[in-house]
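re the bet — no i am not wrong, look at it urself. input seq straight from the record:
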Amino acid sequence: MNQPIKREPPPFMYAVEAVLGLQLKGKPVTEETVRAWLDVALGGNADRIAPVMFHARRIINGPAPEGQDARAHAGCGCAAG
């Protein structure tokens, strides 16, 4: 029988979930509150939280200034980095 392939969602999906979840609950969306959300959602696994926080910071702070996009991905763990 064919079993469905279980794939881990990309890091940015966890970041979007955390930011939108906090907004829907009427809570402030800061790095601290997002990290607390992710700590619960990802079981406190720092290796999984780090790349998600990169994307969460981008969502919270907006896009990087012109010409800094390549440097912004350094070390984030995504395909562009």
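see?? The two ends are 38 Å apart (CA to CA). told u. also The helical segments are 11-24, 31-41, 46-61, 69-72. so pay up
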